Amino acid sequence: MTQEVKEKFVNGVNVEALTRTIGMIKENPEIAKFKFRATNKWINGTHCRGTIKDFYGALQEDDTRPAMHFDLDEPPVLLGNNEGRNPVEYLLVALSGCLTTALIAHSSARGIEIRGVQSRYEGDLDIRGFLGLSNDVPVGYQDIRVYFTIDADISEEKKEELVKMAQKYSPVFNTITRSTPVSVHLEK
Fold first, then answer.
1. Three-state SS for 52?
2. How distant, in Å, are the alpha carbons of 53, 88, 163 from that of 122?
3. Alpha-carbon separation of residue 61 from 28, 44, 51, 52, 54 (angstroms)
4. What is the DSSP track for 23-41?
5. What's the pLDDT score for residue 26?
6. Contact present, 85 and 49 (Cβ < 8 Å)
7. Do residues 83 and 73 touch, judged by C-beta distance below 8 A?
8. Residue 62 CB coordination number (10 Å)
9. Pairwise CA distance, residues 47 & 68, whole Å
10. Edge-to-edge strands of the sheet including 35-36?
11. Average pLDDT over residues 70-91
12. In Å, how far from its chain's centre is CA 65?
């Protein structure tokens, strides 16, 4: 007779599986190395389509997911046709997903039950940099602000700790704030 193992879930995260994964990575750090990929194809005007399908992780290629497409475009005021959201908005969405995931995963590992998390993101961008009209204006966001609301039976101080923890462990937050090198090449 096989014994059924009851997994422990906190906030929808399988904490036992997380603990096993951490143990395997401690034994073999190569398991932790991932390579994520995306492609992009220009459609027309400011409209292009990004695609995500396969990735490498846990010592193997994974192409089991169906391809997911992301239409990117600008609003009419920025010469687009609203065929998608603009890339800087996707950056905010990526940041929101990563900070929230980090907050929930690490809270779950610590046994902290969360009823709800909401966050709001605002970024200030002056397009004079993009348009090449001013060398004094950065090309990109000048400031991004994030506001969290956490519904849990913990103190405000503990909630602040969770927000700091999310920043510490979010790959997207750290990529943005630590200026990860990006190399761009023309394929031949």
1. strand
2. 29, 11, 17
3. 17, 32, 17, 14, 7
4. HHHHH-GGGG--EE--EEE
5. 97
6. no
7. yes
8. 12
9. 17
10. 35-36, 55-57, 60-62
11. 97
12. 18
Establish how many alpha carbons lie within 13 A of residue 17's alpha carbon, considering only the half-sphere containing its beta carbon: 10
Q: How far apart are CA 175 and CA 164, in angstroms?
A: 16
CA distance 155 to 158: 5
Identify the helix (H) or strand (E) that includes residue 99. Answer: helix 87-109
pLDDT in tens, 105-150: 999 999 999 999 999 999 999 999 999 999 999 999 999 999 999 9
pLDDT tens track for 9-65: 999 999 999 999 999 999 999 999 999 999 999 999 999 999 999 999 999 999 999
Total residue count of the chain as it appears in this document: 188
